[in-house]
Every structure is written in C-alpha cells, then in structure tokens.
Amino acid sequence: MNHIVTVQDAVTAFADFMEPSKAELDAIEQEMPVILAGVDLVDAQIIALDRTPNEIDSRRIRRARNRVLAARRELANRRAVASLPGGAA
User: Closest by alpha carbon to 18, among 10, 28, 6?
Assistant: First the structure.
C-alpha cells in the first residue's frame, strides 16, 4: 500500500537529522549578501518583463548585476583571506 510510504515520508521529512548544521547555517549567513543581491537582480528583471525595458529599467538591472558581482567578489576575497596560512595577507 502506498499510503504507508507517504505517511512515513511525511513523518521523517521533519526529523532532527534533516535540520541544517551550524556549519551550514554559518555558510548561508556568509553568502547572504550574494543571495540578497541576486534577489534584487531577479526583482529588477521581473519588473522589466511586463513592458519594453526603458532606460531606467536598464539602469536598474545593470546596477543590480553590479551589486551581485561586488557581493561575489567580496565573498571570494573573504574566503581567500581566510584560507591563507598564518593569517598573512
């Protein structure tokens, strides 16, 4: 019977071992500026979907892309500095 399998999946879907670990939550927190910049980019692109993009839409998208790139660069630089041995820069 398939009903037993679906009930079991529903019960085990929220088991304690399925929760993100502290390391995973820390990684998400470090990447949050990149995530938020990506959301802003998608928002700007969605706004431009409903109509022919004008100059303001193009600027909004371009600025959002630049924010995404800047956030990715900052994250990469932070990881590079953190991975240097002996804390040397």
Answer: 10
User: For residue 49, what are its two tokens?
Assistant: 């979907």
φ/ψ bin of 87: left (φ > 0), alpha (ψ from -120 to 50), beta (otherwise):
left
85 torsion bin: left (phi>0), alpha (psi -120 to 50), beta (else)? beta
Which DSSP string corresponds to 2-62? HHHHHHHHHHHTT-GGGSPPHHHHHHHHHHHHHHHHHHHHHHHHHHHHTS---HHHHHHHH
pTM of the model: 0.69
The secondary structure of residue 85, as a DSSP letter, is G
Q: What is the pLDDT along the chain (89 residues), one digit of tens a residue?
A: 555 555 555 555 666 677 888 999 999 999 999 999 999 999 999 999 988 889 999 999 999 999 999 999 999 999 888 777 765 55
